[in-house]
Amino acid sequence: MTGQDGSYLAELLLDRGYTVHGLVRRASTFNTHRIDHLYSDPHHSDTRFFLHHADLSDASRLLELLQTTAPDEVYHLAAQSHVRVSFEEPTFTGDITGMGTARLLEAIRLTGAECRFYQASSSEMFGSSTPPQHEDTPFQPRSPYGAAKLYAHWMTRSYREAYGMFAVNGILFNHESPRRGETFVTRKIARAAARIKAGLQDRVYLGNLDAVRDWGYAPEYVEAIWLMLQQDSPQDYVIATGTASSVRDFARLAFDRVGLDWTRHVHYDQRYERPAEVDALIGDPSKAGRVLGWKARVLAPELAAIMVDAEARALAGQAPERQEWPGEPLPQRREWKG
Ligand code: NDP
Ligand code: GDR
Known about the structure:
This protein is α/β, with parallel strands linked by helices and about 350 residues long.
């Protein structure tokens, strides 16, 4: 729950009346800064937010927590999620991002938990397939992360087909926010633009500026995640804006926002290149529009503005803007018999 999407999804679920159990890795430093604002004293009887230590490498812990919490919905967001890092730690990434999903699916099967299951699949699985990519586009991953996600994706489909589980893959394209990890390119650029404007640094080093991505806004994407588990039947969906920008475009948008010329501050460093690059990921979200009624509203220019403004607020010591969740009642769900 401590990641970007986990924190937004927890907010959304609490806002919609759920009781939320989140898994957190034990760390020697605090790793809950994205969810600290959701914490309430567990001694209060009206608390609906609970945290549990767990790790995807620990199958018995997953079994225990499924038994004790008996969830209706399981949102599986945990992963070693950094593509560049997956080249440095390929077997660890395979173990957590790939096998971790198998452990969780097995824990659900073995406990007989009657829950719906969401798997955080990724556009990175499309790899070198020609854009625009949709649900039937062939997968051609180009990284250990993409390959691990593809294993998890097919395991989720296998459990749906073999055991009749309500198991769904959301194939999400890049989605960003002020809560994005600092080493992903949009956050790195937004942070640098604000800090350079404030006189705290004068340059930022990036790798491949030509890569094209379909960048959307994370709070909107967790709404799509939630919608997928409220449908009558389990299906896989591409979630994307359908628009394309290069890293160069995003740098220009971010630096424009603070009135700076990006070409004067962005420098190249080969160390941020990957051994194999995915040139262009641009999603075709038609199915999500048709079936879920979901459509991205925030596109790259507004996203860059949101992220740069958030960095500037933080530098000025101001609190982050509160995320608003348009209230939607829980739909009447039909029972899923598998
Ligand atoms: P983050 O990297 O922000 O969050 C990943 C989460 O997984 C963190 O809470 C992290 O904990 C946790 N985690 C990592 N390893 C383990 C482990 N061994 N056991 C338990 N928990 C672990 O990712 P995002 O929020 O951006 O993405 C959510 C999911 O969606 C990920 O699976 C990602 O791969 C996938 N995805 C993301 C996209 C995006 O554009 N953001 C697009 C498509 C898919 P900690 O905080 O302690 O590190
Ligand atoms: P990505 O996101 O690999 O698409 O994975 P990232 O922001 O890391 O890279 C996007 C593109 O930018 C290029 N790039 C740089 N990237 C980083 N991180 N740092 C740099 O300095 C830099 N310079 C150029 C990259 O080469 C790449 O082409 C994200 C993750 O959230 C995954 O978990 C998720 O599955 C996919 O998005 C969809």
